Amino acid sequence: MQNLELDHQIPQSFLDALQTRILAEPQKTGIMICGHGSRDLGAVAEFSKLSQAIAKSLPNVPVDYGYLEFATPIIKTGLKNLQEQGVTRVLAIPGMLFAAGHAKNDIPSVLNTYAVQNDLQIDYGRDLSIDTKMIRAASDRVKQAINQAGGHISNDDTLLMVIGRGASDPDANSNVNKVMRLLWEGLGLGWGEVGYSGVTFPLVQPALEHAVKLGYKRIITFPYFLFTGILVDRIYAYHDKVAEQNPDIEFIKAPYLNDHPLVIETFLNRVLEILDGDNAMNCGLCKYREQVLGFEDQIGLPQESHHHHVEGINDAHSHDHEHSHSHDHDHADHTHHPYPHADHPHGPTTLDSEIA
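Given the sequence above, the corresponding structure tokens read:
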């Protein structure tokens, strides 16, 4: 979906202060944006565009990017590029909305291994997380959909369905509910619900079918995703399927976040947090550190990446599914801790490629 022009601009004073701060560091310092990767070329192009926007915002600071899997350059390539520019300290930011397995395990494992093998200091930042700037960016996307649909249906008669990625980490999943609640109340809509594209539940179709029963005249489906991809396409396809079955309700689609200026500004704030020493993730609800209900046996699991066998692969014929979910992959040599609710009737199998 096309983005509308946005009025917000990142304050130049903030950009100048951040760049001055980085250039004043005793070591030559660069920034590394760490993405997941996708076989969808559009998603890869959008991540690249966002990374280039960050680099353009800090023209005198070395900035590079890379992916865990299914796309190039891989993270190690980006780190090597920074070293070749003389960088001896890297500020690495996970290109993730929330801290689940990729941000907590896979990316840190790749970074730590590279740091040890190449005598490079890498300081790791936190995910985009719950942030007022991210909520404002999300609200712009929802308002964009409402404005395009018209004002013939009131906010009181409108239900917002926020679709998250879904993870085997309940902390990350719960953040989607918080995003929904902040949008629902902040925009003054009639109701809010949450669904997920995979791994957890409810999936998109049962979530929308439940929403239909609540009696609202308009349902907005908003994929809380950074970039396009197979999963976003399937979210919209299930939206269309349920809409077709319920012609008396107006269904509208909100665009995903993409390179909204406030998303870019949040990334840059994460860089500043590293410099200020405020880059700690939320460990109070982390299933690897605390006894999270239902996940007690995962405390202290080793921090390791499970993506080495798919680094750089971007062959649409090599796999028949979107390999982008957080923990539950289908490869025999690529195992994860089992998700405790794998047999739930409303999920959590990743969205099917064929929609009945």
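The first strand starts at residue 29 and ends at 35. Try to locate this feature in the token string yourself.
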